[in-house]
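> forwarded from #structure-qc
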């Protein structure tokens, strides 16, 4: 039975809208429950850096009792002495916006912008999934899995940088996808028009009118201005663009397609990279236009000083090799051996109204939905197999996303890293899982029995995933729970 066109239009927008609302509620509800600066992780630095940047233009230093003063409602105890930092400023400026509007009195101020970008990331993921699958239903599936995922939710509820990074990276992939929709057709049409009878042209067009590539470059400049790992995505997507342009020219029949791809690659570089550099440098405006920032006068001029500061940042970042209770090398991430606990507070019986013998806890764990995580890992492997068999460009784009957000970390085996970094990988794993679930559901032309069986399996999977999401939500959102309830979630020794 064919759905009424008006009902189709309503479903296309209402399905996505309901998922975004759900994502927003799960991220914004009781956002300030943990009235703390997560001093075991970097919220303690980013929030105070952001507040001092609002007043100084650069990161100021704080006294040893800065956290206590900030949390007690007296945040203006920073000094004009500069603080050395290892991350660019954009992510902290984003945190600043929330405190500028809502004030620094509670977590609402310093976490609201991260929560909103986490919600927006769900929307962007659905827009990507809809273009890749050509299905509103499976776009909703992708968005729903991210909307309720523990890793995505918890990282949207603390003022860290990784959710802002994820938003800009997803935005760049959406823009590259939009460019592909325009460019592949233009290459094929232009080359076809240049045929001389049956003789293919030697050269294809050099395309400069690619606004979505410029937009993608700007988004990745912003990503890199949040954390330098955005630069890996910039390099990886640049390679992807060159390769896809080359293959499009070969398919169209261009005789000298490898050389032709180099010509287009130079044009793409000009469109893609300089704007990223401009956006990145612009994020340092506060440091550049003031005089007090760290290493501000280390060189002969502002830009030379900025370069020297970056050298110092790189040396310091590369040297982060100390032990940490929650450290998890990148090879462990697919196995989910050591999720990160970013907040833990325990009240004994009778304290703060606790009625449980073993005490009451508030916890923020960044563990993803276990079922969805392991299914996502399997789906990435499945998609790699499907790409080898079918050579589908959509699979290549998703696998590129996984590769540029995960593989570089494997080359840093001694650096102290954490499982929560995988919030950037998660959307691409969910896209792979969405493709796998679509295949399980069956093709539209498959026999009715095959379709019915496949759809039931997908529904059962989603139902179990939602049940697990509900089970885990209290311990990723700092809800008051008994210690025993928290301990029920210790399915592995490394999960507690």
């Amino acid at each position: 039975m064919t759905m009424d066109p008006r009902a189709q239009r309503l479903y296309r927008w209402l399905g996505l809208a309901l998922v975004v609302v759900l994502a927003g509620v799960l991220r914004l509800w009781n956002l300030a429950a943990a009235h703390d600066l997560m001093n075991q992780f970097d919220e303690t630095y980013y929030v105070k850096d952001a507040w001092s940047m609002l007043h100084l233009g650069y990161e100021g230093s704080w006294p040893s009792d800065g956290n206590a003063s900030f949390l007690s409602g007296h945040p203006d105890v920073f000094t004009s002495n500069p603080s050395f930092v290892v991350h660019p400023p954009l992510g902290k400026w984003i945190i600043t916006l929330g405190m500028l509007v809502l004030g620094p009195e509670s977590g609402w101020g310093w976490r609201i912008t991260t929560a909103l970008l986490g919600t927006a990331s769900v929307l962007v993921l659905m827009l990507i999934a809809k273009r890749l699958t050509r299905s509103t239903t499976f776009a909703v599936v992708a968005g729903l899995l991210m909307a309720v995922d523990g890793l995505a939710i918890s990282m949207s509820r603390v003022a860290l940088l990784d959710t802002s990074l994820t938003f800009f990276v997803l935005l760049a992939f959406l823009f590259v996808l939009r460019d592909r929709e325009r460019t592949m057709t233009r290459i094929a049409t232009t080359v076809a028009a240049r045929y001389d009878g049956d003789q293919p042209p030697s050269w294809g067009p050099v395309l400069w009118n690619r606004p979505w590539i410029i937009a993608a470059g700007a988004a990745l400049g912003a990503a890199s201005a949040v954390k330098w790992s955005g630069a890996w995505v910039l390099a990886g997507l640049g390679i992807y663009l060159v390769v896809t342009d080359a293959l499009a020219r070969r398919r169209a029949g261009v005789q000298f397609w490898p050389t032709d791809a180099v010509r287009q690659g130079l044009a793409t570089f000009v469109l893609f990279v300089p704007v990223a550099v401009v956006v990145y440098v612009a994020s340092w405006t506060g440091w550049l236009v003031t005089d007090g920032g760290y290493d501000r006068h280390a060189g002969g001029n502002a830009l030379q000083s900025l370069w020297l500061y970056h050298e110092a940042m790189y040396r310091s970042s590369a040297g982060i090799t100390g032990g940490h209770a929650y450290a998890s090398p990148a090879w462990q991430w697919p196995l989910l051996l050591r999720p990160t606990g970013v907040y833990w507070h325990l009240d004994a019986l009778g304290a703060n109204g606790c009625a449980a013998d073993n005490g009451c806890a508030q916890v923020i764990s960044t563990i993803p939905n276990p079922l969805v995580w392991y299914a996502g890992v399997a789906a990435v492997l499945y998609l790699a197999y499907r790409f080898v068999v079918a050579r589908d460009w959509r699979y290549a784009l998703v696998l590129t996303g996984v590769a540029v957000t995960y593989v570089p970390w494997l080359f840093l085996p001694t650096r102290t890293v954490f499982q929560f970094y995988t919030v950037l990988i998660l959307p691409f794993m969910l896209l792979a899982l969405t493709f796998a679930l679509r295949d399980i559901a069956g093709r539209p032309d498959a026999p009715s029995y095959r379709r019915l069986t496949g759809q039931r399996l997908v529904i059962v999977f989603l139902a179990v995933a939602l049940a697990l999401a509900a089970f885990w939500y209290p311990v990723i959102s700092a809800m008051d729970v008994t210690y025993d309830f928290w301990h029920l979630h210790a399915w592995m020794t490394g999960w507690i």
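QC bot note: The mean pLDDT is 94. The two ends are 50 Å apart (CA to CA).
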